Amino acid sequence: MGNCHTVGPNEALVVSGGCCGSDEKSYTVGGWAWAWWLITDIQKITLEIMTLQPKCEDVETAEGVAITVTGVAQVKVMTDKELLGYACEQFLGKTVAEIKSVILQTLEGHLRSILGTLTVEQIYQDRDQFAKLVREVAAPDVGRMGIEILSFTIKDVYDKVEYLSSLGKSQTAAVQRDADIGVAEAERDAGIREAECKKEMMDVKFQADTKMADSKRELEMQKAAFNQEVNTKKAEAQLAYELQAAKEQQKIRLEEIEIEVVQRKKQISIEEKEILRTDKELIATVRRPAEAEAYKMEQLAEARKIKKVLTAQAEAEKIKRIGEAEAGSIEAVGKAEAEKMRLKAEAYQQYGEAAKTALVLEALPKIAEKVSAPLGRTSEIVILSGDSGRVTGEMNRLLAELPVTVNALTGVDLTKIPLLQKMKNPQA
């Protein structure tokens, strides 16, 4: 993005910079211009008239008289594109006071140098001519700065030694001098007439000498023309020889170029064959082994895939067979258990109380095992008693209490079993 900048007719707008490092500059006087952000620079320079007052104090003239001269100059920046570019190079970014200072120093330098070449009378009596001379001398220098001198006038001329006031006194002496000059002029006229007569005589002699010189010159010119013609022919012959030699040299060079072309074609053919050989070598040493390795890896991957599939199928079949075997085994066990329970039920129904007692008797060892499990972890039992018969009595007591305990737990009265009755009353 950018901005639109405008200037009045008394200013010039300078746009510099641009895309891709451009060094192009555009100048706009009394108009508008577009400037991009960041990549272009906008500056202005004034076109207004600048008034300067150059002053040279105590400058010695051609006669050595020290005088002081002041002047007034009107200058401005020129609007021609090329000259405006010069002015921008010199003064862009400077203030009006700085521009005035540079131009003023230039004008004062030229004014001082011109004062040293003129007399006081020339400066004082013909100020316009003096100012014109200053403009003519200073204009090229300030013009190279892009500055135009519109006007330059002498404002004042004075001195500190009253030389100018003495010029009036010199006028009286000038009248006397004019009288003396009149006498001298009369004498001069007589001398001039005498000189004219001598001149006429010399003119006649000069004309005669001139005719002789003309004849001699024509002769020399004819000789020079003949020599020129001879030299021309020699030069043409030499040029023709050099031209023919150049043509022969060109033919030789063409033959050498053709030989180089043939050699280059052979070299290109050899390089193409070398490229083909290198390509085949790369195919044989790199591409083929790589393709073989890729094929090998592909086959190995396919084999591993098939192996996994077969292994999974075998595992699934194994699980299936195991499941079927376990199902069959469970079914057979279930049938056997069912048959066993059926037979037990029939036996219980048939034998009644005897069957129940048998079940209790079968369970007693298991109960005794569970009850004595804590004692099974005991390595030794010591019964403290001084009476050996007391131990036997304790054992008998425990056995006597067993039927009561079983009856309380199961409801089966062991005392009614004939075998236990015999164990209780061995005499019967």
TrEMBL record:
Compartment annotation: Membrane; Endosome
Pfam families per the UniProt record, alphabetical: Band_7, Flot
GO cellular component, one term: endosome
Keyword annotations of the record: Coiled coil, Endosome, Membrane
InterPro entries: Band_7, Band_7/SPFH_dom_sf, Flotillin_C, Flotillin_fam
SUPFAM superfamilies: Band 7/SPFH domain
GO MF annotation list: protease binding
CDD domains: SPFH_flotillin (cd03399)
One record GO biological process: protein localization to plasma membrane
SMART domains reported in the protein's UniProt record: PHB (SM00244)
Residue ranges occupied by any Band domain in the UniProt entry: 87-269
Coiled-coil region list: 216-274
Subunit field text: Heterooligomeric complex.
Cross-referenced PANTHER family: FLOTILLIN-1-RELATED, FLOTILLIN-RELATED
Family label: Belongs to the band 7/mec-2 family. Flotillin subfamily.
Name used for this protein in its record: Flotillin
